[in-house]
Amino acid sequence: MTFTLETDGFALLPGVLNAAEVERLSCALGLVNGAGRRGLLGVPAVAQLARSPRVLDLVRPHLPQEPLPVRAIYFDKSPDANWLVPWHQDLTLAVRERAEAPGFGPWSVKDGIPHVQPPVALLERMLAVRLHLGAADATNGALRVLPGTHRAGRLTAESIQQLRAERAEHLCAAAAGDALLMRPLLLHASTRSDRPGHRRVLHLEFAAFELPDNLHWHEAA
Q1: How many domains does the chain have?
Q2: Which one, of 89, 73, 7, 79, lies nearest residue 36 by Cα?
């Protein structure tokens, strides 16, 4: 079965990076203490990739204006950092400092960085690109999604439970070098890994809008 970004909220693109590129990017990111690292648009190799024609050409057809890379996170699920993620939507933006703006809130802090929920209309103008730096499958915590839930807006806990009961989930198995395009509002989750080794993913986020004048992206490239 073929899934599309417009209908299902996600799409798998095979072979976006070749084996040599996966190896170079893995070396540039280095070892991870804990579950992962945030703020990686400051790493030259990551910033160069996020601004590259190859990646931007994947994103442009799905956003209403020129995409801006606004966040990069490296996830490394391993025997030393093995976690599960419950069903959720990606609802927050990372910004430099807290400032009040109409429609923005509530606020939170992650790793010392202010995060805020923007209006749903802005989340709908974002897209994530998950680049797999190793194979991901049912045994090591590959992403699971509920197709089509990106069109349901911001969901309550009760709505999430109802959608889980009504819709079949899909496991986004991927090979090293594959890219997964994903809307932030798509319901997704992952399990713990059941085997040794690493499940490495570089998560890039792109936005097609300007923030209010008193808000600034924490790490826009």
Answers
A1: 1
A2: 73
